[in-house]
Write a structure and sequence with these properties.
The chain is of the alpha+beta class and 162 residues long. It has helices at residues 2-24, 128-131; strands at residues 38-46, 52-53, 68-69, 72-80, 89-92, 99-100, 103-111, 117-127, 136-143, 150-158, 160-161. The strands form three sheets. Strands 2-1-4-8-7 form a five-stranded antiparallel beta sheet. Strands 6-5-9-10 form a four-stranded antiparallel beta sheet, with no helix packed on it.
Length: 162
């Protein structure tokens, strides 16, 4: 009997500690998806060229003489709100340009002070074979996950060398 009472007391104590630990852990709340209100390229780089900050304001042009060398062009884009990931494209020139093949390297959620997801940062890799060596402009085309409203962001003046 005494052994059973001790075991029950120990079990209650462990349950209370576990409950306190679970309540103390930070959590991220997905909630309803916030609309895609803004997107901007953050940086562009390649295997042999260090990251160059992308100009967020028009004309969105990279510094003159910037040449990316390697096999892939990497671009980090910040999305405020929730894009329809299946409709996200990287295009040559403009929003009606040729769709470039890419693969997602990383996607990181952005949270507010309450740990609610308010957007994402995505890093994508575009093979140089998709871009070519002539100077091109890159258009990132996305749609809001809820309404389908289109959004566009640009990086102009991209030059590559193998």
């Amino acid at each position: 009997m005494i052994k059973e009472a001790v075991m029950r007391s120990l079990f209650r104590t462990l349950l209370a500690v576990l409950t306190l630990v679970c309540l103390a852990l930070p959590t991220a709340s997905a909630g309803s998806a916030p609309p895609l209100t803004h997107m901007e390229p953050i940086a562009v780089w390649s295997e042999e060229t260090a990251a160059i900050p992308a100009e967020a304001n028009y004309p969105n042009r990279l510094p003159e003489g910037t040449v990316f060398r390697g096999e892939n062009l990497y671009i980090k884009v910040r999305f405020i709100g929730y894009p329809a990931w299946n409709l996200l494209t990287y295009r040559s020139g403009s929003e009606t340009g040729r769709i470039l093949a890419f693969h997602e390297v990383e996607r990181t959620p952005l949270t507010d002070d309450m740990r609610v997801i308010v957007g994402y940062e995505q890093t994508a890799a575009i093979p140089f074979t998709e871009i070519g060596t002539a100077e091109i402009d890159l258009c990132i085309a996305a749609a809001d996950a809820g309404s389908g409203a289109p959004r566009y962001a640009y990086v102009r003046g991209i030059r590559t060398e193998k």
